[in-house]
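Human
Can I borrow your eye for a moment on a structure tokenisation matter? Give me a protein, with the fold worked out from its sequence. Write it directly below this note and I will take it from there.

Assistant
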Amino acid sequence: MAFFELENIYKNFGETEVLKGINLTINKGEVVSIIGSSGSGKTTLLRCVNFLETPDKGVMKLDGKELFSYPEKKKTKEKERLKNALKFGLVFQQFHLFPQYTALKNVTLAPTLALKRRLNEENKKLKADNKGYFERRKLLAEIKKKELKNIEDEALVLLKKVGLEEKTASYPSELSGGQQQRVAIARALALKPDILCFDEPTSALDPELTGEVLKVIKSLKGDGRTMIIVTHEMTFARNVSDKVIFMADGVIEEQGTPEEVFGFPKSQKTKNFLQKESEEI
């Protein structure tokens, strides 16, 4: 059984059909790169996977569990939707770091907010068990102190992993574009997603900074992480991917191993795209 499945995903914006019946399976630990021209539907597909867009039709499953099915037979609770969305991490093109926070605080922010939600739930359970106010307060304070320490320790490990252990106290304005994107990768990893997604992670970077980000992504493959990467870096996609998907006009035109798609493409559209890409290098 596949670890991740998309079945018949459709998405329209007004009268424009952007996704036209996407079917995709990914195994655990697999790295899938999605390539294609601008407007082919790559980013929209990634946004649907990360619950940033709502498909008009289709089913998504993770590890055998249905995360969404549209049109919905019954309204999904917002709490359940948020829980499902947190199974995915997304690294954007434009970093989206909070300028007022240090690199460390940018990485710890989301886990800290998640901890607050867990503490609220724990408080409700303690109330239901007839624990008194002061007893609850003491227990929650102990949990909070321990968990905040764990969050910071894990964030420091992640920043070290992306090569920024010396930049934990730096603000985004003090970091290069490549360093900011590496903070964004650490931030996405901080919530321990089942699948890590990248939307053109190097498109906003100067060529000399691209290599450092791609090196970090490649190191994550070595950790056995399941990843979906929308990229225009053909050489990188060829070297790091287990599966390559070529999208055109809202459909998956072709998919296969890097050798199959890059070395022996079957579709004329794939051949034309790769030819154009090679001419622009």
About this structure: The chain has a mean pLDDT of 93. The chain has two domains: 24-54+85-98+176-280, 101-170.
